[in-house]
Write a structure and sequence with these properties.
The protein has helices spanning about 40-60, 95-105, 130-145, 155-165, 205-210, 215-220, 260-265; strands at about 1-5, 10-20, 20-30, 65-70, 80-85, 115-120, 125-130, 150-155, 175-180, 180-185, 195-200, 225, 235-240. It is α/β, with parallel strands linked by helices and about 270 residues long.
């Protein structure tokens, strides 16, 4: 099960293994109360509504051993990177110690308050981090309503999982529009290369493309847009269904809005 919560929407996609691929089984969405304030009472109402949706409407329809994967908002993620010194030839666990000591100088928050993840690609170390408190909040909430949370990821990565199943090359930029937000996911191994931009800040895809790296703007076939609502000579498009081989469930007309939840379903295990 992939679970995505964004602004005033909660979306869920469920799938089961079918031979070597995934079979799409269910997709649901529900509105959440719109919160214009951050006071405790308003937030508690939103959390209670969320629990009721998960427990009363969805939990009863899914198997008890349903594996849940959840995405954090890009706003909850801190990111940074640095170049690994040429003379460093460390292996784990020493490499991990070195990386964590470096991270202490890169983030404005005490490293002890963060959950840190990193990748190394061509001597660059790319960091993603989020607060322990955010991880604990969602883990406890989902456990309370009966779901087994196995993965917490970020929405740009979910686009990558979809693109991989749709056979889209790794060395491309992916663009997706959901509600009032653009999501851009960069090259596969450079996990720091992603952006989340509000529609109010960038009101057209032409302007959005100008924010991408110069070399991307100049090369054809390096940008893929998820959806068929926008056509442009500068990029190719693909459909969410390109990532699934079997989908016997009746799909809603706005199925493309379930992209993040669907991408989480397709996420493979960590190596």
């Amino acid at each position: 099960m992939g679970l995505d919560i964004h602004h005033n929407k909660i979306q869920l996609v469920a799938a089961t293994r079918h031979r070597h691929d995934w079979q799409l089984r269910e997709c649901w969405q529900h509105s959440l109360p719109i919160t214009k304030t951050q006071d405790t009472e308003t937030q508690n109402i939103r959390i209670t509504t969320l629990k009721n949706i998960l427990q009363q409407r969805w939990y009863k329809k899914l198997p008890n051993n349903c594996d849940t994967k959840f995405s954090l908002s890009s706003l909850q993620i801190l990111k940074s990177h640095f170049l690994l010194p040429e003379k460093i030839t460390l292996t784990e666990p020493e490499l991990g110690w070195f990386v964590h000591s470096k991270a202490e100088t890169l983030f404005p928050i005490d490293i002890r308050e963060l959950v840190l993840d990193y990748r190394i690609y061509q001597k660059q170390i790319y960091f993603c981090a989020t607060r322990h408190s955010d991880i604990a909040f969602w883990s406890e909430l989902l456990h309370e309503v009966g779901f087994s949370l196995s993965v917490i990821d970020i929405s740009p990565n979910a686009l990558r999982y979809l693109a991989h199943k749709a056979a889209i090359p790794d060395n491309t930029w992916l663009i997706y529009r959901r509600q009032q937000e653009w999501i851009c996911a960069g090259l596969l191994y450079q996990s720091i290369h992603y952006q989340s931009v509000e529609i109010t800040e960038v009101d057209s895809i032409e302007k959005l493309i100008l924010l991408l790296p110069k070399e991307t703007q100049q090369q054809p076939n390096t940008i893929f847009y998820l959806g068929n609502d926008i056509k442009h000579h500068h990029f190719s498009t693909w459909s969410l269904l390109d990532s699934f081989r079997y989908y016997p469930v009746k799909l809603s007309k706005d199925f493309h809005n379930f992209a993040i939840a669907a991408g989480l379903v397709l996420r493979e295990g960590d190596k």
